[in-house]
Amino acid sequence: MAEREIAAIVLAAGEATRMKSDTPKVLHPIAGRPMIGHVLDALAALPADRVIVVVGPGMDDVVEAVAPAETVLQEAPLGTGHAVLSAREALAGFTGDVLVLFGADPLITPKTLRAMVAARRTAPEPAIVALGMRPADPALYGRLIVSADGLLENIVEARDATAGEQAVTLCNAGAMAVDGALLFGLLDRVGNDNAKGEYYLTDIVAIARADGLRCAVVEGAADELIGIDSHAGLAAAEALVQDRLRAKAMAGGVTLLDPPTVTLSYDTAFGRDVVVEPHVVFGAGVRVGNGVRIRAFSHLEGATLADGAAVGPFARLRPGAEVGVDARVGNFVEVKNAVIEAGAKVNHLTYIGDARVGAGANVGAGTITCNYDGFTKSHTDIGAGAFIGSNTALVAPVKVGDGAVVGAGSVITGDVAADALALTRAPQTTRAGWAARLRAAKGKRGKG
Predict the structure, then answer these.
(1) Which one of 82, 279, 299, 348 is the catalytic residue?
(2) pLDDT bucket at 1, cuts 50 / 70 / 90
């Protein structure tokens, strides 16, 4: 595909009116990423030489989300054809292939885009290649009317289709590949004599055919071409993307013990021989090394797990968590912006935040790093081979030296030297017979 440049116009000016949301439709996330990000990722894999995103007024958040892609403004919502015309100046003089895509079609794949471009370049080159699909329920989709020789003759909107046209199962998926030398000239001739008073991109097919130009169809899989304009559609797309991500993970050597219960992010990265137990959620930015086991009901986000690490069950790794080689993070443990070095163990009911736990150290159940004083975050440093007794509070900033021992139930506010013992528990007081006397006194009063 190197012989001719590819430009892409991504339509993203639509509001989320039918979704009843203040967030622009294309920014609703799928697998932890705005849906338009999936479209841009497919274009990067094509690859496209230029990408122009059409936005509406006040959509600064969309402009920011698609950077560094170029953006142009559609001043008023006058239809898909008008939206594409907004990119005229940006593509002045461009004569390569132009892909027109929708930012709310996040499941389209690079394979499908390549097929569209290949069809545009197959002699005798068609002026327009429309993307078609055969959905289970075609009722709301425009129909692609194809001649006996396989050429695309027209695209008919569902509400305008005759009974015969409604019987056609090949539907318009929306995307097109168009000759860049012809695109804007065709759009200039599109009218708005329709119920909505809008300029429809689909009308360029009839105009091109009237000029004697060839138009063609590439058929794609229906499950990658569903547009999203509702929360139900968003959920359906999420399910399809999750299926793709799980399949990719398992093909790469990951064992998912109960695949449908595992939620992945678009960028989850796994090594080999990883085992993921049921009901694990991966947020964005998780990197997992070889031979790692992630036990059930754990939640990970922005975390890195080195080879041989084990996490969970019921563990939470927040952004900045780094779990070292063969380290252990156990049940009901939360780690945030902290390093658990090689072989260290934090096994039970513990919070480690803004800290380092040195290699081979052992942190007892119920320990917390008190990292925030209401104004600033401070660091806790636990040395290699140190032992922190259960129910210890380490008040940052504080350092526990290599090999040191902190007695259970302590509140540590000062540094502990290497190999030292530190404890702050009060002396134990024992009163012989006190419990028996209490029971006797309570018994005399009877049951209330």
Answers:
(1) 348
(2) very low
Q: Which CATH class is domain 253-422?
A: mainly beta
pLDDT at 67: 95
What does the domain layout of the chain look like in residue ranges? 6-224, 253-422
Q: Residue by residue, what is the 3-state secondary structure of 188-246?
A: HCCCCCCCCCCCCCCHHHHHHHHCCCCEEEEECCHHHCCCCCCHHHHHHHHHHHHHHHH
Q: Does domain 6-224 have CATH number 3.90.550.10?
A: yes
CA distance 210 to 200: 17
The C-alpha atoms of residue 136 and residue 155 are separated, in whole angstroms, by: 19
Residue among 296, 284, 285, 291 at smallest CA distance from 306: 291
Q: Is 231 a catalytic residue?
A: no
Q: Hunting for tokens 């080879």 — which residue is that?
A: 307
Is residue 44 pLDDT above 80, yes or no?
Answer: yes
Percent of the chain with pLDDT strictly greater than 70: 98
pLDDT digit string (tens) for 68-110? Answer: 999 999 999 899 999 999 999 999 999 999 999 999 999 999 9
Q: Can you tell me the distance from the alpha carbon of 323 to that of 344, in angstroms, rounded to the nearest whole number?
A: 9
| pLDDT tens digits, one per residue of 308-329 | 999 999 999 999 999 999 999 9
Enter the tokens of residue 364: 């007892």
Backbone angles phi, psi at 292, to 5 degrees: -85, 145
Find the length of the chain: 448
> What pTM was computed for the model?
0.88
Residues sharing a CB contact under 8 Å with residue 430, sequence separation 6 or more, in sequence order: none
Distance CA 137, CA 142 (A): 12
Q: Do domains 6-224 and 253-422 have the same CATH topology?
A: no
Closest CA to 175 of 246, 245, 80: 80
